[in-house]
Amino acid sequence: MAGQKQKVNLVVDLTGKTVLVTGACSGIGYGVAEVMSQAGANVLVNDLLPGRTLEVARQLQGESFPGDITDPDFVRLVREKQVDILINNAGFQHVSPLESFTPEIYRRMLEVLLVGPFMLSQAVVPGMKERGFGRIINIASVHAKIASAFKAGYVSAKHGLLGLTRVIALETATHGITVNAICPGYVDTPLVRNQLKDLAAGHNLPEEDVLNQVILRPVPMKRLLTPGEVGFLALFLCSNAADAITAQGYTIDGGWIQI
Ligand code: NAD
Questions:
Q1: Residue 159, pLDDT score
Q2: Are 177 and 156 a contacting pair, CB within 8 Å?
Q3: Is the pLDDT assigned to residue 2 strictly greater than 90?
Q4: Where are the beta strands (DSSP E) in 82-122?
Q5: pLDDT of amino acid 8
Q6: How confident is the model at residue 19 (pLDDT cuts 50, 70, 90)?
Q7: Ligand 1: which atom is nearest the Cα of residue 69?
Q8: Residue 47 pLDDT more than 90?
Q9: Given ligand 1 and candidates 21, 89, 210, 225, which is best to mutate, with the most ligand atoms within 8 Å of its CB?
Q10: Which of 19, 105, 204, 236 could form a disulfide with 41 if both were Cys (CB 3.0 to 4.6 A apart)?
């Protein structure tokens, strides 16, 4: 109303909301799940190993929800849950020159990084439409926007995930649902630490030089991100302040790619 100041509340309260975080037992998934839990959400903790999901669910006062996201039986179970916020995070990396990149690993990367998020989105969107609220956040990568050598599977899948994000955003935009991707640079997680050896071989460098000479070389901030930093961006996208933000790919990378 003219002349009246509208008060803005930047506290994000997810009490009453259920968040499914895939791959929540490690790295970014854990960081996002922890932030969501701190914001009051009920977190469905998904990962491959039931023992680990149980442990993490206890830590976060959430619900253990183990399963392989590419398994249609798991997707059927997701259909039965009321998921208000879906965080498609589960993933893995494989580093290899094109000539030795096996079609089996290439297909598996597309399956986990792209087909899984597609099937889970299909499973949760009808309920979100019914309730008139939903958030889908796809943890993509800077590799959804740029390429790096030796990552044929990963870069293909992440570019696809950003495209999928935009399509689902357009199909849900009038239903109170937003769909966005977060595109992190290198985050300090086992996925990054485990690729140092293969990157060393690919770039013909000693393993201890890979972090500074390959990974952080183009990054102005000269440090890895933390999972919590990705979590807070995800939390903002879940807030009412982000109601009008959809179909975007948010880069968080210490200034690396600037797109
Ligand atoms: P991580 O290896 O620490 O954790 C990934 C988790 O996903 C693991 O717990 C794993 O068990 C789980 N997972 C793998 N396949 C699964 C499946 N089929 N079903 C259920 N769970 C499965 O890796 P991270 O670095 O935390 O990466 C998480 C996501 O963030 C990935 O999609 C990755 O591509 C993306 N990402 C990571 C970085 C980074 O620098 N670490 C940067 C950009 C994007």
A1: 98
A2: no
A3: no
A4: 85-88
A5: 63
A6: very high
A7: 19
A8: yes
A9: 89
A10: 19
Burial 79-103 (b: 16+ CB within 10 A, else e): eeeebbbbbbbbbbbbbbeeeebee
Single out the catalytic residue among 30, 106, 154, 250: 154
250 is catalytic: no
> Can you tell me the distance from the alpha carbon of 99 to that of 83, in angstroms, rounded to the nearest whole number?
41
Quick one: pLDDT at residue 11?
86
Are the C-beta atoms of residues 22 and 29 closer than 8 Å to each other? yes
**Percentage of residues of the chain with pLDDT beyond 70:** 98
Residue 153: CB within 6 Å of ligand 1? no
Cβ 48 under 6 angstroms from ligand 1: yes
- How far is the centre of ligand 1, averaged over its atoms, from the C-alpha of 56 (Å)? 15
Question: In terms of CATH architecture, what is 18-188+225-252?
Answer: 3-Layer(aba) Sandwich (3.40)
Q: Provide the token pair at 125.
A: 């969107």
Buried b (16+ CB within 10 A) or exposed e, 113-143: bbbbbbbbbebbbebbbeeebbbbbbbbbbb
pLDDT for the residue numbered 5: 76
Mean pLDDT of the chain: 96
